[in-house]
Amino acid sequence: MEEKAAKIRIDELRETLRENSRRYYVDNAPTMSDYDFDQLMHELERLEAEFPQFDAPDSPTHRVGSDLDAPVGANAESGARQGFVQRAHRYPMLSLGNTYSIGEIEEFAARADKALDGIPFTYSCELKFDGTAICLTYRDGKLVQALTRGDGVQGDDVTDNVRRIASIPQQLKGDFPKEFEIRGEILMPYAAFDALNREREAQEEAPFANPRNAASGSLKLTDPEEVAHRGLICTLYHIPAESIQFDSHSQALDAAASWGLPVSTDRRLCADIAQIKEYIDHWDTARKFLPYATDGIVVKINELACQRMLGYTAKSPRWAVAYKFKAEEACTELLSIDYQVGRTGAVTPVANLAPVQLSGTVVKRATLNNADQMALLDIRVGDWVFVEKGGEIIPKITGIDPAHRPADAAQPVFPDKCPDCGTPLVKAEAEAKWFCPNQDGCPMQIKGRLLHFVSRKAMDILAGEMTVDQFYETGLARTPADLYDLTKYQLLSLEGWQDRAAERFLESLEASKQVPFERVLYALGIRYVGETTAKVLARHFGDIDTLAAATLDQLREVADVGEITARAIVAYFENPAHREQIERLRAAGLRFDGAGQDAALSDVLAGKTIVISGNFSISRERMKDLIVAHGGKAGSSVSGATAFLLAGTKPGPEKLRKCEKLGIPVVSEGEFRAMLPDLPEAGAPAPESAQPSGANIEEPTLF
Ligand code: IVH
User: Fold this and answer.
1) Residue 254 Cα, ligand 1 centroid: separation in angstroms?
2) d(CA 326, CA 288)
3) What number is the average pLDDT over the span 608-629?
4) Can you tell me which atom of ligand 1 is nearest the CA of 322?
5) How far is CA 445 from the centre of its chain?
6) In 125, 189, 392, 703, which residue has its Cα 20 to 30 A from 483's Cα atom?
7) How far is CA 107 from CA 103, 113, 122, 580, in A?
8) How far apart are CA 511 and CA 524, in angstroms?
9) Does any ligand 1 atom lie closer than 6 A to the CB of residue 94?
């Protein structure tokens, strides 16, 4: 590869890896599979080795991913991550070098052999638990501190929460050292995860993508009482050698078990590669029957003297390596392919599959990414295909089974025209995707942008796919600014709309004028500007005019904004149609300056944790914002620490029962609003039948 091309690719990889690392560790909402992430990381490592002139100390290859408390993340819960105290780790918490091939485990063993130069050693093989890392400190047998991994150097102090995890003893027994640290993983077993997601879905809250995210989200809740109800468990696997006097890792863990600590019993001491392979083969299948998630195995050199000799790189120990299992796969028939046009004009081929079970869910659709991917797979309609879960939620097709190909299997033809508006598709050289260039005329793009604008994480306006379709078809609203010109009279002229629904829609439109600048910026739908980047930009530039005037160089200076994003931002503001939209939205009263959360309205709810349940005159998200704006905290389950249950129409019966049992007051929306200073009392929420079917608050989803 040429130097120039290498530099571009390195920048691109760093940007992608940083963004995905943030989604994984901070937002708890990954969009890329671990496997794909690791492949990109390896590609970056290779390029940096080949072009050392571009290596940089802050490259993701030299840094441990960070979960440190950050501005509210995408999958954060209400009551989550609001300022934990950060404390330095006594010994850095590193990650592990990982691989998907036995060959690399053999290389690891060979390197250790060579470095230890004839000193005999053994391997401790263990499960790689897929949760969130924790570091516990015990002094005089008492649990005194629990820190998350954080950025590896300092972590969030979550001691109060960890005290609520039943399997972690507060007091040790037996002959324990005066003071020591022990590390491990906090896990949410599948059963607790399913129950939690069922409850979240019933409450219209976004479900967690996987048990790992649920565990780390739960550990960052601000109400320890709620943590107690999440069913978290813990398994411990590492005592930093500096803090104890043992000869081997396995002895240290056996001792820890005798002090009452939860240490995995599924460890095995192996003498050689053959035994390591046996262990891997066994657990590749056996792990499917465990009640919690594991994503591989860890091989550690067992003798602590040998560990000390091997030492550490900046990122991981040289005495351990992780072998990761490949994600679970299923095989099924490809029935047909749809070509979907997204809001950016990108055309994505989507496979319709014969329904198949995969990691606990039924999969019917899967993404094929782009035309290159289809060609690479040489895929035909009628083929038997392998499906894997990508970012754990959206499945993807990873291969075909040529042995099963029917004789008449048809080769799909990627369209050369937009499947929606017929405009010839274009492809920029550097892009893998084909695009419909008809930005202002392609219905799918126009509707896609509107849907994005109204979505919950953006402006949170009460309109779903059907409503947006109606607005588009009737020509009432085709751009975000058009929404703010809609009148009640116009809405009532639409099929299925009644008085109350129109009012609720207009109320949500009015409420959207208070949405903070960072979310308005996200709602504009600038390419590559996701929620996190929007937050960073809002904080950095302060208002839209300063952002619009920023040069490429000024944009590149912003942490984590790379070349591609910077160019997309400049291009966005160069377009006069976009400038006009912004002016109209500004005139409508939207916030185009001021970073951060809604300004505090009062502190009448200070110190109160309020749980909400049922439907209200505004969306549940807005209701939670209102609680926070008046100094309160929004909790997600009723406990002794709950001040009151704010109940709308159809509150959850389980929550009501719990309130009765614990003697917790139940407050209606009207009573609640009466507690707040200077706010008009809202009318009774509309019965469900009064809503037009399209006026739902769900975001559009592909699958
Ligand atoms: S040992 C110095 N053992 O995997 C590294 N880690 O990808 C000590 N993990 O940060 C870690 N199971 O959070 C170790 N049996 C195990 C593990 C394990 C899961 C996690 C841990 C680590 C990450 C690295």
Assistant:
1) 18
2) 13
3) 80
4) 7
5) 25
6) 703
7) 6, 10, 16, 60
8) 17
9) yes
Euclidean distance between CA atoms 260 and 160, whole angstroms: 20
Specify the residue with its C-alpha closest to ligand 1, atom 15: 128
DSSP assignment of 146-208 equals EEE-TTSSEEEB-HHHHTT-TTS-SB--SS--SEEEEEEEEE--HHHHHHHHHHHHHTTPPPP
**CA torsion through residues 476, 480, 485, 489, sign:** positive
478 phi and psi angles, rounded to 5 deg: -120, -15
Does any ligand 1 atom lie closer than 6 A to the CB of residue 37?
Answer: no
Six token digits for residue 449: 């942008």
Confirm or reject: Cβ of 135 under 6 Å from ligand 1.
Answer: no
Among protein residues, the one with the nearest Cα to ligand 1's atom 10 is 95
Q: Is residue 298 lining ligand 1, measured as CB closer than 6 Å?
A: yes
- Residues 554-583 have pLDDT tens digits of 998 876 677 888 999 999 999 999 999 999
Those residues whose C-beta lies under 8 Å from the C-beta of residue 159, and which sit 6 or more positions away, are 143, 144, 145, 146
- With 0-12 / 13-18 / 19 or more C-beta atoms within 10 angstroms meaning exposed / middle / buried, residue 619 is buried
- Compute the distance from residue 114 Cα to the ligand 1 centre, in Å: 24
Q: Give the pLDDT band of residue 81 (cuts 50, 70, 90).
A: very low
Q: How far apart are CA 29 and CA 17, in angstroms?
A: 14
CB-ligand 1 contact for 518 (6 Å cutoff): no
Interval between CA 328 and ligand 1 midpoint (Å): 21
Catalytic pick from 128, 396, 447, 633? 128
14 Cβ neighbours under 8 A, 6+ residues apart: 44, 59, 60, 562
Cα–Cα distances in Å, from 65 out to 18, 79, 88, 294? 8, 23, 16, 19
Q: Give per-residue pLDDT as tens, 169-185.
A: 999 999 999 999 999 99
| Centre of ligand 1 from the C-alpha of residue 321, in Å | 9
Please identify which residue in the block is written with the tokens 């809604």.
Answer: 598
SS3 assignment, position 219: helix
Q: Which two tokens stand for residue 278?
A: 């046996």
Structure confidence at residue 360 as a pLDDT band (50, 70, 90): low
Q: Establish whether 128 is a catalytic residue.
A: yes
pLDDT tens-digit profile of 631-683?
788 887 888 889 999 998 888 888 899 999 998 999 988 888 888 876 433 33
Spacing, Cα 410 to ligand 1 middle (Å)? 47
Quick check: CB of 96 below 6 Å from ligand 1?
yes
* Interval between CA 222 and ligand 1 midpoint (Å): 26
Show Cβ contacts of residue 194 under 8 Å, excluding neighbours closer than 6 positions.
none
**Closest ligand 1 atom to 93 CA:** 2
Q: Which two tokens stand for residue 686?
A: 């509309």
Give the position of tokens 């030492």.
Answer: 311
Strand partners, 147: 135, 157
On the question of pLDDT at 381 being above 80, the answer is: yes
Q: Where are the beta strands (DSSP E) in 311-383?
A: 320-324, 329-341, 347-358, 361-367
- Sign of the Cα pseudo-torsion (242, 247, 250, 255, in order): negative
For ligand 1, atom 14, the nearest C-alpha belongs to 237
